[in-house]
Amino acid sequence: MLLAADLKKGRCGESLKTITVTRGVELPIGALSRNEITKLDFSDYDLQVVDAIVLAAAITNNRSLSTLNLQQNNSGGRWASAIADALAVQPDQWFSFNGLPLRNLKCNQELELDLRDLTIGLVEGMVLARWLPLNRSLHLIRMACGFEVPINALRTGMVTKLSLSNTGLQPEHAIVLASALGSLETLILNDNHIGGMPGNDVAEGFEALGAALKENTSLTELKLIRTQMGPRGAIALAAGVMLNGEQRTGSLADHDDQGKVANDGDSFGSIPSDEELDKLDEEVDLSTIKAMAGAFLFNQSPKQSYNCAGVKIGIEGKEVLAATNSNEMKKPTRSLTSLDVRQNYFGGDGARALTNAIAMAGQTGMWVCFNCIPLRDMAGDQLTELDLEHTGIGVTGVHVLANWLALNGSLQTLNLSSNELCGLDSSGNGEYEASGIKALARSLVLNKTVGKLVLDSNQLAGRQCVDQEEHDEGINALAESLSKCVSLTALSLGKNMVGPKCTTAFAMCLSSNMLHIMMDCGINNASQQMDADCFGSDCSDEEYSESSDKGGDFSSIKKLARAFLKPNLDPGLEGSSNGIASEDLMALIDGGVLNGSLQVLILDDNQLAGSSKSSYGENVKGLESLGKALKDNVHLTTLSVRKNGIGLQCVAAFTPQLALNGWLKTLDVGDNPIFGDPAHQLAQVVLNHSTLEVFCSIPVRGKMNQQLAINLQIKAEGSGVPGVLVLSHLLPHCSALDFPTITVTKGVELPIGALRQNILVELDLTNHLMGPVDGLLLGISLMFNKSLTTLILDHNQLGRHKTGIHEEADECEDGLKALGDAVKESMALTSLSLRDNKLGPKCAAAFAAGVMFSKSLRTLDLSDNRLVKMIYVKLIDVQGSDLSPGSTCTYQECECPIIEGVDSDGEIRIQNIRGVKALATALEINTSLNTLILDGNNLDDVDHRLIEGGIKDTYRYHSDDGLAALGGALKANNNLTSLSLRGNKLGAKCAVAFAAGLVFNRSLIRLDIRDNEMEDTFFSYEALLKLAEAVVAHPSLKVFNSIPVQDMKNDTLAYLNLKGKNVGSTGALVLRKLLVSSSTWLCTLVIAAEVNLRMGALRGNDLKELKIVNKGLEAVDAVILGAILSFNSSLNTLILGENQIGNWNPRLGSNNFSIGIRALSDALKDNNNHLTTLDLSKNNMGPGCAAALSAGLAFNGSLNTLDLGGRSRMIIQALPYEHEEGIAALGDALKENKTLTSLSLSLNGLGPKCAAAFAVGLTFNRSLNTLIMTDNLLCSQHASSGFKALAEALVVNTSLKTLDLRGNVLGKDGERLAQEASDKRPTLSICYNAA
C-alpha cells in the first residue's frame, strides 16, 4: 500500500524497471512512469488485488498508455474499483480497455454499443459506468445475456418504467444500469443474480444502485426480489436508500466509504430536545451539530431557529452550520417511495441496515410501500384490516412493519402468515433470526387497536421436525407482550412447530392476565419425551398408562388447559395443524380445558383418531373423552375437528355423547372419512339437536329460508357425507329456494337449482374432482328431477375418499348408493357414464341395487374402475370350512375365490367379486338397459407376481366366478344389445364360463372382449374355440371385436380392413371359422401394416408363393393365414420371417404359447394343402411354440423345408434357464414325419439338455437331409453328455447328409465326438469351428 501511494505521487517510478508483487507477474513500472508504452496486455495473468492496486497507481500518473487489456483475471471488487478509478483520472487518454471502445464513447462516435462478443465482468462494468456519463450519442447497449440498456430513451424521459426480471443480470450489469437511470420512475430487477451466485454476497452491484439513489430524484419504485442480496449488498443499498435524492457537495451524515450504517439506524446522532437545545451553554460535540443541521435540512427540526450564542461549537461545527446557512448543502429531494427486497437472505446485519434506512427516510412521510407493506396507508390510519399472507416480507419487512404499527391508530386485524418472519423458509432454509418477532412484540404493546394477529407458518420455533432444537426467543417475546397488550384478543400461531417450551410459556402468560385470547398455540408433539417423570407429580391417571409407558410428557398441555379454567370473557383455543394425537386430546380434556369458560375449540388438521394420519380410526379414546366432556359442558359453543382421520369407530363413540349436549351451536367434522351407517346416525343427531345452528358450514336452524338463501350459493366444502345428509333433509323443506349451485367439495359447483327446476336435459361434470359427497348430493337432487336424460360423470372420484388411507378401507359407497336410488326412481334418465371414478366392489354392489329396478336407463358406462379386487381380509371377516387357495369363502354375503391361504398375520387373500355379481343379478332383472360398458375393470384380477412361475402352478389363481355370473345374466336378460368387456385380464377359464351363458342369449348385437389375456400363457386353445363357436353360432350378434360377423356370415363383404383393430385371439378364431365356411365374395383382407391379402387369388388357387417378411405380423394374423391354408391347394411356399408371431417371454419358460403357431400347426395337419416350404425364422418363438408346431408337423405329408431359426444371439439363454420341452416335441414329430428334408434350428439357445432331447427323435427319422444348428450352446465342458447323445443319434440316423454346428463351442470332447460320428458315417458332412 505504501508503494502504491508513492507511485501515485510520482515517486520512485522512473528509477524502477519492473516490480514483482505476485510470483510470475512483472509490472513495467519504469516504462509506465517514463511514458514509454502505449499498449499493455496482461490478459490471463491471474493478477491479484495487490497487483491491481500497484498497477493502478502507476497508471494514474502515466500519459502515454492508451490501450490496456486485463481480461481473464481475478476481477474482484477492490481489484476492479482500483483499475476503474485509475482509468477515470485521464478519460481523454484512453483508446480501449478490455475491448471497450473508450475513445469512441468519449468522443460521441458510438450510436449502439454491442458487447455480445465480449466478456463483461466487474471491472468492465465499473469502467463503462464511468464513461457513460461522458457520452451523449449512445442509444443502446447490447450485452451477451440479452440485457439491453436503452440509454437515449432513459436520458430523454421516453422510458419511465424498465422491467428486466429473470434476464440473468449479474453485478456488472447492475453497475452499468445504475449509471444510466436517467428519468426512470420504476425499475424491476427481480429474479436475477445481482448479488452473484447464492452465498457469494457480491455487493458491488447494490453499491452502484445505492450510489445512484443518492443522486437520483425521479426513481419512485425499485424491486429487487430474489436477487441474491447478501448482508454486504443490503448494507450498501441501505446507504443509498437513506440518502436518496441528496444533491449537495458534502454530507452531514458521518458514514464511511463502505456504506456502513450504525446499528441504531441514526447516522446523524440524536436530535436534541427543545429543552436541551435552549440550555446549551457548554461545548457541543460535532455529532450534535450535525444532528441540528440535519434536522433543518430534512424538515425534522422541532424549532424554526436555535440560539447558539455562547455555545462552544468548535471550528468544525462552525463550518457545518455555515454550510447549512449558505445553502452549500442543499435540501435533498427524495423520490423513492416503494422498495421491495423480499426473498433475499441478508441476515440480521443487512436487515437492520435496511430497517434503519427506511425509518430514517420514512420520516419525510413519503414512503408508499416496502416489501408489499402499504406504509402510506398505515401512516394515514386508512386501514382496519391488512392481509399480507404469503407475501414473504421477511425479517426486514416485519422490522419496518413494527415501526409503523407502533404509531398506527386504525388497524384491527393483521395477517402475517407464511412470511418467513424468522429468516427461515417453509423448507427450513436460511438462518434463524428472532429480532423481527421481538420488534413486532414491542410494537403490539404500543399499538392500541390491533385485535387479531395471525402468524401461522412462519417457523417461529426455528425447526422443521420435533427432533430439532426448539427456539423460544420469539415466542417468549410474544408471550411477554400479551401481559401488556390492551387490544389483542385473538392470536394464531399455527403450523410453527411450537413445542413444549413455548406452550408452557403461553400457559403461564394466560394464567397471569385477564385477556380473552384465541390461541393457535401450536402444541405440536408437546407429548414428546422430556424426562422420566412423564406426567409430573399430578399426572398419573390410569387412562394414560399406555402413553406413560412410552415416555410421553403431557405436562405442558395440561398447563395450557388449566390456563382456561379462569373465568375469562370469551376465550378460545385453536390448535390446528399441530400433530395433536388422541393422547394429547385426552391430556387437554383431563387438564380441564372444557371445565372453565372456554367457548371456542378448534383442533383441525391433527391426528385425533390415532397416532398418525395414516391410521384409520384405530384410537377412539380421545374422541370418547371429548364426547363425555361435551355431555356436561355448558359453555362451549363452537367445536371444529376437521381433517383428523376420524373414521367410523371414532364417530360411533362420539355421536351418542353429542346427543346429550345442550349448548353447542357450531360443529364441524368435515374432511373426515365418515360414511355409511355412522354418517347417517350422526346426521340424525345433528338434525334433532336442540341448539345446533351450523353443521359443517351448513345453516341447520333458522337459516334455510327464502329471505336469506334465495339465489345464494351455498358453500359447505369438505362437509362430508354427514353434512350432505343433513343438507338433503333440509332442502326438501325449502321449496321456495332457488339455489344456483351448492359446493360440498372445493372447486365443484353442483347445479342443484337447475336440477330442481327441471331445466337441464344433459349434464357433463367430467373431471370435476367430485368425491362421494358430491355423488350423494347429486343423487339426492336427481330424485326430484324429471328432465335430465344424459349424465356424464367421467374421471372423478365418486367411489373414494381422498384421505390417504389404504384403498379397500377408503372406498365409500354413499355417493353411488344415492345415484343408484336416483336411477331407480328416475323416469327420464337414459344415459349414465361413470368412467374412471375409483369404484370398487362396495360401490358397484350399492349402485347395482338401483340399476336392478331402473325403468328408463338405456346406456351405462362403468369402465376404468376396479369392480373386482384382490384384497387381504382377516379370518374373522370370512366364513368357510376350506380356506386353501382355489376354494371359496363367504365375504360380505358373497362367495369369493381364495387366492392365497392364511399368512403370518392371520389373513387370507381373496378375489372380491361382490360388485360384479351384484351387477349380474341386476342384469337378470333389469328390463331397460341396452348398452353396458365394463372395460378396464380387472374382472379377473390376478397379481402377475404370482403367475410368472408357470401355468401348472398358477392356473388356479384365475377365477371364472365373475364372468360366470355375467354369462348367467345373459341367459335371463333379453334387452341387452351391446356389451363391452375390454381390458379386464380375462383368462381361459373366464372364456369358457362366459361362453356357457352366451350360448343361450338371444338379444346381444355387439360384443367386445378385446385386450384381455385369453391367449398366450393363460389359456387353453380349446377354451377359445368354445367361445369362438358360441360367437359364430349366435343368432343375433352382428359385430364381435369390431368384426362384422353378420355380414361375413351373409357373405356380403368384398373388402375387410382389420388394420389397427386388434381383434384378439378369439376374434382371429372367429375370422378363421367365417373365412372357411363363408365369405366367398371377400376379395381383399387387410391384416397387419401394409399387408393386403388377395383373397380372390387365394381362393382361386392362383398363388404359388406368399412372402410377408418384417411386416409386424402377430399371432392373430397367423391364425388368418392358417385359415387360408385350409382351403388353398396351390400355395407351396410361405415365408413369414422376422415378425412377431411367437410372443416369447423368457420368464414363462416352456409355458409360452402362441395361438398363431397353433393355427399354422392345425393347417399343417390338413393334407389338402401342398405347402412345401415354411419360413418362421426370427419370430420370437419359444419352447411352447415349438411344441404347438410339432403337433401339426408330425402328421404333415407335404412340407420339405422348415426354418425355425432364432431371432438373434441376444435371446440365447444361459444353461440354468434351458427348457428342453419344445425341442423334445420337435424331435418326436420327426419320428412320424416322412417328408421334411431340411430343418434350421440356429440361434435358439439350445444347450446340452436340448441336444439330448432332440437326439431321441433324430435317431428314428428317415427323411431329414440337412440339419442346421448353428450358434447354439450344444456342448459344454461341464455338460457334454447331451452332445454325446446327439453324436450317437447321428451314427444311427441313415438319411442325414449335412449337419452345420458352426458357432457352437464344442471343446475337445465335442470335436472328438463329432469326428467319431463323421468317421462312422462317411456320407455325413459335419461343419463346426475347430478349437
TrEMBL record:
Q: Which GO terms describe its cellular component?
A: axoneme
Q: What is its main location?
A: cytoplasm
Region called Disordered, residue ranges:
252-271
Organism the protein comes from: Cymbomonas tetramitiformis
- Signal peptide (from-to): none
Identification of the protein by name: Protein nlrc3
Name where it's found: Cytoplasm, Cytoskeleton, Cilium axoneme
